[in-house]
Amino acid sequence: MSAELWTIAEMWQTDVDLTGFAVEARDGKIGPVDQATWDEAFGYLVVNTGPSIFGKQVILPGGVVRRLDLDNETVFVDRTRDEILDAPAFDESRADDAGYLEELGAYYATGRHTDNYRPSPSRNT
Fold first, then answer.
1. What residues does 75 pair with on adjacent strands?
2. What residues contact 50, with CB distance under 8 A and at least 6 apart?
3. Which helix (H) or strand (E) holds 46?
4. Integer CA distances (angstroms), 51 to 34, 57, 109, in order
């Protein structure tokens, strides 16, 4: 697993709870942060991509964060909407599983799903 992908840049480390912050991809809004796991060596955001019928929760590795706007409660990430919306759905039961995180890391590193994951047929656009 690429450590850089999961490492929060020092400049983005904060004690502020990012839950509820909006997430902006390079090309538009994604949804709110449902959960934030932030520490010096490892971190990720769980983002809700839309209503329960059309959306899902996805993990965004800490290394994709490019800017935090604490005044406007927005997290800017270095991925496109499609990359995020096509990402594997968050599986909370596997959140501490190194193999699962490695699979997610492979997706974000290459922009492609592994054989275990397929893009969802419907997205909230």
1. 23, 68
2. 31, 56, 123, 124
3. strand 43-48
4. 13, 10, 27
- Give the global pTM: 0.80
Distance CA 48, CA 57 (A): 4
Q: What is the pLDDT of residues 50-95, one digit of tens each?
A: 876 667 999 999 889 999 999 999 999 999 999 999 998 999 999 8
- CA distances from residue 3 to 17, 22, 36, 83, 98 in whole angstroms, order as listed: 23, 25, 18, 20, 12
Go through the domains of the chain in sequence order and give each one's CATH number.
3-109 (2.30.30.240)
Closest CA to 46 of 54, 30, 35: 35
In three-state form (DSSP H/G/I as H, E/B as E, the rest C), the secondary structure along 106-120 is: HHHHHCCCCCCCCCC
CA atoms within 13 A on the CB side of 87: 31
